[in-house]
Fold this protein.
Amino acid sequence: QVQLVESGGGLMQAGGSLRLSCAASGRTLSTYAMAWFRQAPGKEREFVAAITWTRGNRDYADSVKGRFTISRDNARNTVYLQMNSLKPEDTAVYYCAADQSRATYLSGTDTARGYNYWGQGTQVTVSS
């Protein structure tokens, strides 16, 4: 089992920055990739960014490219999402996800079905 705990959400004005953290605990040795997804009210969950754990390959949604950066600290089993130039449309609950089964190797790191562990989410609200 793997537990994921997100932190760092909050309220920010448009143009500001926030950094989200996701700490993984438990059986983390099999981590292949980790990612951030988000879900706004009334909308489906959508991919934000992903990173493979060993090689550090990154993938981003078009809507956040150039503004968000995903990174990881292997020693701390933690993944980060640095969010700059925030926009009101970034308002959502942000979820951390982990792939412990290499499913995203076939499905792609941008698809939710490839992740078998999820955090509880952290709210990010961007005011205009």
About this structure: The first helix runs from residue 103 to 107. The chain has a mean pLDDT of 95.
